Amino acid sequence: MTRQGVLTRSEQPMHLWAIMNEGVLRRQVGGERVMKEQLNHLVDISAQPNVTLQVLPYAAGAHAAMLGSFATLSFSSGEWNAFLAIIKSGGLDALA
């Protein structure tokens, strides 16, 4: 829970933009009560002006992120990097 504090701190809160596959919202983990708490938490945190949550629906079909998750990072220097997490490997690459 301490990690989440970077989203709600008063000085320079981190900006988060997350795109989740529909399956992560539908797949029950921990039972009905836990899922309800998790979904309510996502709704609450997405109300923050520095947080954007999007859902990639099943209907979108094949997409570029099917091989694994990835994160893009931007820094105050203007530099962008991407971390790709693929089943057997992972790596950090500078974006053009």
What does this entry look like structurally?
This protein has 96 residues and is an alpha+beta fold. It is built from 3 helices and 5 strands. Strands 3-4-5 form a 3-stranded antiparallel β-sheet, with no helix packed on it.
Outline the secondary-structure elements.
Blueprint: H1 5-8, E1 16-21, H2 22-26, H3 31-46, E2 51-56, E3 68-74, E4 80-86, E5 89-94
Core attributes:
96 residues; alpha+beta; 3 helices
Please outline what is shown here:
The chain has 96 residues and is of the alpha+beta class. It is 26% helix and 33% strand.
List low-pLDDT spans. Answer: none
Kindly report the spatial arrangement of strands forming the biggest sheet: 3-4-5
Query: Whole-number average pLDDT?
Result: 82
Question: What is the first-to-last residue Cα distance?
Answer: 34 Å
- The dominant shape is globular
The helix count comes to 3
Radius of gyration: 15 Å
Helix content: 25-40%
Order of helices and strands: HEHHEEEE
User: Which percent band covers the strand fraction?
Assistant: 25-35%
Structural class: alpha+beta
Number of strands: 5
Largest β sheet strand count, sense and barrel closure = 3 strands, antiparallel
